[in-house]
Amino acid sequence: MTVITIERLIPGSLVLFGGNRAAVITPDLADRFEPGDHLLVLPETGDFLHIPAAQMLLAGAAVDRAHAAFQAMSAVSDQAVDRFFDGFAALLEAQSVWDAVTEANLRDVERARSDGRSTTRLVASDRMRHDMIAGLRAWRDSDAGSAHGTTCGFRVIGAQHLRPRRAEWSTWRPAGPGAGRRSYCSLQLEIVFHDGGRIA
Fold first, then answer.
1. CB-based contacts of 149: which residues, under 8 Å, 6+ apart?
2. Deepest of 105, 131, 134, 165, by most Cβ within 10 A of its Cβ?
3. Cα(first)–Cα(last) distance of the chain, in Å?
4. Is the model's pTM score more than 0.90?
């Protein structure tokens, strides 16, 4: 099998998906595609996801930083992690901090609405606040002898305007002082790409 790197798209070309269906490259998409860009096709619908090279670099760098941060966690004690969860929960409980969060969130929601995007998962509600506080304290109080450890999630942002598309999981067992209770940790990487407000 021969594998080549595509540096340009030809209008009218077919991209196979779903086993026996094909999506057609449009002239607009072909014009916007540049060397280094990536093109994905959603297997359910045949819609294209055009990922500019610059966004690929941003997302890749964010993933690398998140992976390195989780590896560094193997040297962190459970006591230090407990203090982090405690401090995070306390900040969320502080009304002045939450007022700043909701103010920033309101701007994000208004921006999303002006762009015609859904805000269903974007609004920072009081219920979300209480659930986050409860979750942080549940992680703090998790059983030190648990064989399953704690699942840790991070959203990796690849651009200012957000359109989540996929999640990838990587699991490993860290060694060192921080390995007891949180022996197993799953890192969720939700890669977010943006292309000038449009997804091809």
1. 142, 181, 182, 183, 184, 185
2. 105
3. 29
4. no
191, burial (CB in 10 Å: exposed 0-12, middle 13-18, buried 19+): buried
On the CB side of 112, CA atoms within 13 Å amount to 15
Q: Indicate the residue type of 73.
A: M
CA distance linking residue 50 with residue 15, whole number of Å: 13
The answer to whether 163 and 117 have CB atoms below 8 angstroms apart is yes
- Residue pLDDT, tens place only, 93-132: 999 999 999 999 999 999 989 988 888 888 999 999 999 9
Q: Please, what is the Cα angle at 88 between 84 and 94, to 5 degrees?
A: 145
Q: Phi/psi of residue 65, each to 5°?
A: -65, -40
Please name which of 182, 164, 190 lies closest in space to residue 70, comparing C-alpha atoms.
Answer: 182
Query: What gap in Å lies between CA 169 and CA 154, rounded to an integer?
Result: 11
